Request: fold
Amino acid sequence: MSETPAPQSTPTKPAGKNAFMFVLVCVFIDMVAFGLIFPVLPSLLSELTGDSVESAARYGGFLAAIYALMNFLAGPTIGGLSDRFGRRPVLLASMGTLCVDFLIMGFAGSVVVLFIGRMLSGISGATFSTANAYIADTTTPEARGKAFGMIGAAFGLGFIIGPVLGGVLGQIDPRAPFFAAAGLALVNMVYGYFVLPESLPPEKRRPFEWTRANPFGAFQHFSKIPNVGWLLLALGVFGLAHTVYPAIWSYHGEYRYGWTPAEIGLSLGFVGLISAVVQGGLTGVVMKRFGAAKTAMIGLSFNVLAFVGFAFAGTPWLAYAWTLISGFGGFTGPAFNTLISTRTPQDAQGELQGAAASIQSLAAIISPIMMTQTFYAFSGADARVHFPGAAFLLAGILCAVAAIPFLVGLRYTGTPPATDTVKDAA
Reply:
């Protein structure tokens, strides 16, 4: 059962520089807030559980998985709501609830409360997919690759400042980064309230349908568009591999290299710096030169190389060296987004990005548990084979596998359908 279309009496303003800047700042602050907590998670979980860092990593895997599970379930609904009511209210509501989530986690006195906070964060964590839909609304297909690259750069810049600041604050108190993250989310919501216009005009909105506003309904819809469905599958497998970074980086760094929270923050800041340079300065140029499809393959290749390198990086300087290589893997995300968004009509961009976010969240449900358990199996006191880099090697294999559905998807060509219906797509 569907609702009637939104009233057309409320006009939208042109999405100018301030609006695009808000989207960039929105992603930037999201990543600052997200990155703030990574350096302190090993210490906080060890404090709450009383376990060693490699054992606490298992809780960290489930903590990441519960966030992804809620994001997976809520992603298409939130994407569908943005197609029905517009991008602006979804973005602002997400920022507000994110502020509350971080406060809950900051005051958490047990692992259970920490899990509740992460569950709420997962529900409100659709900002990135809605931001992508906003970009798709306001850019031409030709300019979309560069715009997605700038979003990726904002993502990277957030990861420069967030983990470094989190590491510094974590030296004072493991809970301090959570309160700082809550403050940043609140500031961004207030900023967006004043500068963000709506990007989706009423006449281009579509009815909200519960049959499509869930991950399985969205998957069914896009599976009937082969040139999108196979690419979404490839995106999911790539997500399984790429989630190794947030899943075990902090635990791996503390265990293998003896890094403190501040050193973990600095290493993640370096990752963000390289990502920002590559995505902000090179993605648009490379995509213009080679096209989105070849750029995605270049990115996948660099990711495979970097994952294998990290697996055997026995010293900190080698980890930093392979971080330079991994930066070029940042071509993959913007190239994927460009390919799938240009094959989807405008009135389904929110649904598309919600479905893409849910696929990545599904990967993020499985991957943190898989990666942290692999890390523990090869690093714990009773490990039969001691190989702390095993999870990175597994990620490299998965990333190579992602190339298979990607290449199959490229065999299908075509333009977005004129109307967004399952019947037309079938």
